[in-house]
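pasting input
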Amino acid sequence: EAGVAQSPRYKIIEKRQSVAFWCNPISGHATLYWYQQILGQGPKLLIQFQNNGVVDDSQLPKDRFSAERLKGVDSTLKIQPAKLEDSAVYLCASSFWGGSLDEQYFGPGTRLTVT
Amino acid sequence: AQSVTQLDSQVPVFEEAPVELRCNYSSSVSVYLFWYVQYPNQGLQLLLKYLSGSTLVKGINGFEAEFNKSQTSFHLRKPSVHISDTAEYFCAVSDLNRQGAQKLVFGQGTRLTINP
């Protein structure tokens, strides 16, 4: 079974530039999560999708971050414009249906450096 | 809202020694608890989880954790560590968002370093 795929693995941009990350979840998984992991901290949920609908985006900085999951499969997370404090690893995860008994499977992450 | 505190940011241990990584959570009526491991440049992998039942939970790679409701703790243990256990370990608790859906709240992480 293929795991969660993410690209790119690494990205370096200057502040005020735009960047986009892509995630392909495990086939058949209805729920998709984007987490931000700042160095030295645990992952923080940014947004959760159930199929192509948003379940939770309460911690997403909506003035600069946006995410979509067209057709309920792949997802993209965009930052525009980027700030220095956005430097982090962005992790994508998926689960079968999103319940508490449901394991989340994580991708390898995209490491973003904003200079 | 639930929260998790991992009491040690770094734990150095010699190979074949026992180890305990400590985790405390905020109290709740019911709670689901998890330990994840993150190897360098990789995503998180589930080690074990407590949902209900026996308070001693066994996971992969010889790890186990004990749920202690009175102390609101979920400490991770391994009787004998190996060099390959060097990684970052995260404790997490399941919480409900405003829409009533489950989400994970992670602790700050504990970096386990195994020395030969």
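fyi Chain B has no helices and twelve strands.
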